[in-house]
Amino acid sequence: MLQETIKKAGVLLEALPYMQSFIGKTVVIKFGGNVMDDPKMNISILNDILFLKQIGINIVLVHGGGPVINEMLDKLEIKSEFINGNRVTDAKTMEVVEMVLTGKINKELVGNINKLGGKAVGVSGKDGNLIIAEKKYMMVDGEEVDLGLVGKVKKINPEIIDTLDKSGYIPVISPVAVDEDGNAYNINADYAAGEIAGALNADKFILLTNVRGIMRDINDPSSLYSKLYYNEVHKLINGGIIMGGMLPKVEACMVAINAGVSRAHILDGRIKHSLLLEIFTNKGVGTAILSDD
Hints:
Layout: H1 2-22, E1 26-31, H2 39-54, E2 58-63, H3 66-75, E3 82-83, E4 86-87, H4 91-115, E5 120-124, E6 131-140, E7 143-156, H5 159-166, E8 170-174, E9 176-178, E10 184-187, H6 189-199, E11 204-209, E12 227-229, H7 230-238, H8 246-258, E13 263-268, H9 274-280, E14 287-290
Parallel strand pairs: 1-2, 1-11, 2-8, 5-8, 7-10, 11-13, 12-14
Antiparallel strand pairs: 3-4, 6-7, 9-10, 13-14
Helix pairs in contact: 3-4, 6-8
C-alpha cells in the first residue's frame, strides 16, 4: 500500500513542471464523434478536461458528430451521399446537421460539463460570427464538384472565445458556420478546430479520435510514430502512409501549425486519461506533430 502511495507521489512530481508551464495557456481540443459514442468514456474525458481547466489552462472544446447525424438522417429517411469523405449537404440535410450539432450534441456536452461541476457555454460558428465560411468545392478526377452547403473556413473571429475564457467558462463549439451573406454551412470539425487553434495562437491542438495516432501499419501498434516534424508528415502523405480518414485529421494539425501552434497531437480518446498522459508525462501516448523550427 505504501509503495502504491509513493508511486502516485512520483507521478505528481513528474506532472508538476508541465502543470506549471501550462498555467494561463490555451489548449484547443477536438472531440471526435466516434469517441463520443461511449457515454462512460465521454464522462471520463470531460472530467479530464475539467481537471485541466481547474489548474488554470484555458480549454476550448470543438466537437464533431458524424455518427449521430447519420443516425438522424436515416430516421428521417434522408439519403446521405459522400464524395471523398465529404458529406454532400443540401438544404434539408443542412437543417438536420445544424439541429444535431448545435441543438443536440453541443447542449449535451455543455450539460454534462456543468453537471460535473464545470462552467461551459455552447456556441456555434454562427455566434458572434465566430467562423466565417466560404463554399467548398472538391476536385474529383480533375473536375470541380459542388458539395452543396459544405464550407471551408475563410476567417475566425475569436472575440467570443476570449470573452468566455476570461470569464472562466469552457467554450464548447459546434462547427456550423455562416458566410458573409448569412447562409449556414457545414464545416469539417477537424479543420474548424485547427483553424480555431491557429486563430487563438494556442499552445497545443489536440485531436481526440478512435485511433492510436499515425502508424506505419494500422495493424501493428509498435509502428506508432510518437513524434513527427512537419516536413516528415508531408513525406508520409506523399508516400501513401497517411490517407483515408486520417488525412483530414493530419491536415487539420498542419493548418494549426502553419498558423503558429507549436505542437499538435492525435490521441486515442478510448485510452483512459489519454489527455492527461499526453500533456503531463514525459512519453505521451499518441502522435505529436511539431513545427520544423
